Amino acid sequence: MLRWLIGGGREPQGLAEKSPLQTIGEEQTQNPYTELLVLKAHHDIVRYLVRLDDYRFASAGDDGIVVVWNAQTGEKLLEFSGHTQKITAIITLPCLETCEEKNQLILTASADRTVIEWDCDTGRQVQKVSCFQSTVKCLAVLQRLDVWLSGGNDLCVWNRKLDLLCKTSHLSDTGISALIEIPKNCVVAAVGKELIIFRLVAPTEGSLGWDILEVKRLLDHQDNILSLLNVDDVSFVSGSHVGELIVWDTLGWTVQACERNFWDPSPQLDAQREIKLCQKPNDVSIRHLTWDEENVFVAVGRGLYVYNLQMKRVIACQKTAHDSSVLHVVKLPNRQVISCSEDGSVRIWELREKQQLSVEPVPTGFFNMWGFGRVNKQASHPVKKQQENATSCSLELIGDLIGHSSSVEMFLYFEDHGLVTCSADHLIILWKNGERESGLRSLKLFQKLEENGDLYLSV
Amino acid sequence: MISAPDVVAFTKEDEYEEEPYNEPALPEEYSVPLFPFASQGANPWSKLSGAKFSRDFILISEFSEQVGPQPLLTIPNDTKVFGTFDLNYFSLRIMSVDYQASFVGHPPGSAYPKLNFVEDSKVVLGDSKEGAFAYVHHLTLYDLEARGFVRPFCMAYISADQHKIMQQFQELSAEFSKASECLKTGNRKAFAGELEKKLKDLDYTRTVLHTETEIQKKANDKGFYSSQAIEKANELASVEKSIIEHQDLLRQIRSYPHRKLRGSNLCPRESEHTQDPPSQAAATSDLEESADTDHYTCRPSYTPKLIKAKSTKCFDKKLKTLEELCDTEYFTQTLAQLRHVEHMFRGDLCYLLTSQIDRALLKQQHITSFLFEDLVEVGDRPAEKQESTVSKPHHYGLPSESPEDCLVPQVLISVGSYKSSVESVLIKMEQDLGDEASRGAAVTESSSFDPQENLDYLEMDMKGSVSSGESIEVLGTEKPTSVLSKSESQSSLTVPLSPQVVRSKAVSHRTISGDSIEVLSTCPSEALIPDDFKASYPSAINEEESYAEGGQGAILFQAGISPPELGEAEEGSSSLASLQTDASCCIGREAGALLVPLSTPGHTVSDEDGVVSVPPQRYRQKDQGFHVDFSVENASPSRDNSCEGFPAYELDPSHLLTSRDGSKTSLDDHSDATSYGSSVASTSSDRTPSSVPPAGLSSERHKKRAGQNALKFIRQYPFAHPAIYSLLSGRTLVVLGEEEAMVRKLVTALSIFVPGYGRHGKPVKHWLSSPLHITDFQKWKLIGLQRVASPASAGALHALSRYSRYTSILDLDRKTLRCPLYRGTLVPRLADHRTHIRRGSTYFLHVQSLLAQLCAKAFVYTFCHHLHLPAHGSEAPELASSRQASFLQLTLGLVHEDVKVVRYLAELLRLHYTQELRGTSQPALRFDYVPSFLYKI
Questions:
Q1: Percent of chain B whose predicted confidence (pLDDT) is above 90
Q2: Where are the domains of chain B?
Q3: Do B931 and A2 touch (CB under 8 A)?
Q4: Whole-model pTM?
Q5: Do A5 and B628 touch (CB under 8 A)?
Q6: Nearest to B931 among A366, A438, A457 (CB)
Q7: What is the fold of A33-313+355-387+408-458?
Q8: Where does the UniProt annotation place the signal sequence (chain A) (predicted)?
Q9: Cβ burial A148-164 (10 Å sphere, 16+ → b, else e)
Q10: Is A394 helix (H, G, I), strand (E, B) or coil?
């Protein structure tokens, strides 16, 4: 595509030509996002997005500020600046039913070794804790006990008033990378290659106060654990840097299932290509996990895998879903999966029941014109064969969103407002369904006409 | 711009029109000979034959008590403008028809001299010998040293075109009133200051005299007064009297503002003028005026002088200059205002009228005008506009608040009967609307005088005129109809005055032969036209009304018709006509009665008798039906806000100017016209409040150049259509090239097709050398991008290819275009490469008129309720969208990609309309996932 622009010779190494990346042309009839709004407030990488309620979300990143946005209008509502360094974790603090003020609170942890509690309605800094020995890397809220936990080099338990209830001893220098709650007042913390299970002891008549006890260490992972997901009450899933996906039992803390061969699910196929592309360890690190009732969606390196919990196997995969590492995956209610990646793109996939193997027409469009149709065909081949062998579903690319010029760190999906993506290019983009927005604007117009008394409807 | 592009006068190619497109010459037998005098710089519209001056100018004269009428200054202050025209003679003429009759003196029953705050008089007079016609504005300034304390002045707008004066009378009067008001305000201030000083002098003199008398008294031990002592006592007494007189004068002059205020309900216009100072700087004058008292009282620096007992008013003393009379500050302000007036009325009458109509129509379009029009004037007072249009939808038919407001030029003058002889008619143009207007009896201004007051006026005028000079006859007026009937035989010109006027004098018609002064009265109000006459003149208003009445449940949609010269335009209008019917049936069927009166006041310019009549816009409003109001209230052309609202360049009729004035004046003189900005800078002082941004005229030129370049682009590139489609549908077009000048030129040319977002100008970036970013596409819809042959630029190009779905890319160097397919019919009409339009400005106007039609379609689409919302609660939303599609296709006649254009414009309209009040943010970037194609030459 660049050839005609630059005039040959100096063409940069187009990634598209080298990888069997599935591409979609410019014609994306199923892609609903036909309107975008660029939100600018951050001065550095935006890493975190947190949904506050139906229409608001907060963003935070390396510039240490937290911004609250209106997801409908893209309006910047509030800006919190209290941290001096980058923000490392952000979580909403659900308000208590008994609590009178229903203000939405959030907790942010920063590399300046503080945690601040913010009020998202007033924009006020509620409280600040700065007695940490190390950077807090993850936060978790145990709503049932009305406490929250901060994980750095050690694990601390706090109550709502930001009093330190108890803490563990120093765990590791690398710190806790992930923290989830499991039943029986237990939490799982990922520390390096280990998963450590702690039990929280709430004060009773007998004991004086809170305590946190290490219950068990799970040592099945070969490499650093990057992602941890609480699937349901019975199991949780962890993923490691070398592509191990382990499903654990939440009660017995035993391995229910293990999937270690993401990097080589079908070695007999295109062996050379697979080796060349996927042998690099970075390519199989599991960076993000998400799930719906049946499946866990796993971002493995550049690929996207769907692991069925019942069948205990991968039912669909897209080995090179993106040009580089997939950072975040979300399953939408309508069988759509959205993934974002370091390559700056967001892709929308549809999980389809596997059909009979008919060669689908290659999307006509831009790339065909440029003679890239070849690439498409190549790309679709291995996938198809793969499906035959190991999967019963397929992930079909139905659209991509191109807007960010750098790695897309995370995104949020709003049922009513669309998609919010944040990126290393300091921007947040609000992707909207153009048709719906147009309808809304129309509605607004007539409302305004009516307000002004200019609308005369026939009786 | 809705005006017809080619109705304006034929003029020769302007000098800055660069490289006009040269078509092969026509064979001799087909060519129409050019206007024979074109080489001499004349044009068929020129009426300058008899005139000794080259173009219109403003003359300020004074009736000096020492030397009689004398010219003071002209604007523009350039001898070449008035050439051999005898200013002295003309001053004599115009000063001898002063109807003001403002006298100061001891009126019977009053002990002290009384200042008479007379209103200015405004007359039109002609001098056939000189070939000059003038609007003359008389005013009186106060001067303590002058005879009767008054100094009569007049300002005259002198033109060779009598029709121009007549038809622009209202506008001229309003503008000159502002200037006059400014002068008078300054004068009152200066006069009060003068009185202060005089009082101090007198006071001092009294003290001195008193002391002297005392001394004399003491020295004199005899029992009787010496003659010397008596003389002193007399002197003292006269000083005392003088003090009282002057104090009274001071009180009078100070009370003026209050008087005005009191009289304001009688004379709303005057009060408005005071509150509406001609310029920003003048805004301070009101404040100063209100703070007058403070100013006058605290002048400690002045040291009083002794006044000689016999202060003689002798002729050797120098009279104050105009500048001294009214404060330098106000004087410069007035000059600026007059310069503005001169600039405003430059050019041919035809041009002025067209542009006034144009502006008036544009104002009614305020909902859509932001898309393609230059929005310098819109957005002036958006809030007010909003106020008046939206919150008061019931105001149609009601008159506007002030006479200035209802003006599509609606002057109707029976000039046909005028045969340049000597008939003079009394003029009193004070528009006294009073309560009538507020009660809203008529749309147009009605000069309904208070009978009694009018009687006084008439009498006063008579007095003034009788004494004014023997060469003038001022006659009372007849009832209009009778005058009309007589006028044929008497070869006179009369224009009816209001029938409501109570005439105190017997009608007298006299024919004065031999003299060359004519005083023409004007009667600009449509309301004054006698009924029988009104009925007979061909006008669109009757038709329009009948439309409105007949159009029950129909979308009324009358587009400004483009000149028939443009075949495409005809097509457009016919399609709109079909729209009208289609819409009516469609809506009638689907949503009941709907009435969208698009306000398009019809106007006829019938030149066979020189009558230009544009009827006022009247709205017939149906109670039922959806109605979006394009307020009539805003339909005022330049008049009342021409000063603070329109920058003068808006009114610059430069293309006519260049032909007409440029032809007769030398080049350097002409520079005034071509580069007004610089001339303002040079001729006016630094205190020109209404000075014109230099960008003003360049925008006129810019249009021309853009039109010319766009024409070239269309002719040169076969893929112009998809490129223009991209712009119209809101897909960013990137013009890629190495040469900055080329890219800029093309971007400028193409920018005429870019719909604007709001009132912040068009989203066009002329030249960009950094890599594109996603925000750029949100911000700009047309970008000139530098192609650099360095590795660094690979990033830029990479970004370009990455974002290719949001852009169309026009590669100037390789002559390629990558953009979506276009199959509609709209753009071919807009950009026909076989067009016969050759001039850039013509093409620009052609584009504007087609775009105006397009906007109208977008408007109808946007504001049709049933298209966007379910007609009733239970209706499925799909139904509305199918209605939408069929409306776009069948009613608006849009095919294929044209639909997208209208949808995009509708989107912008919605955004604009809903966000108007809370400051426009950039709209979201909208795009489609459609394949692009590569076009090559």
A1: 3
A2: 57-100+115-217+229-256+337-347, 701-936
A3: no
A4: 0.63
A5: no
A6: A366
A7: Methylamine Dehydrogenase; Chain H (2.130.10)
A8: none
A9: bbbbbbbbbbbebeeee
A10: strand
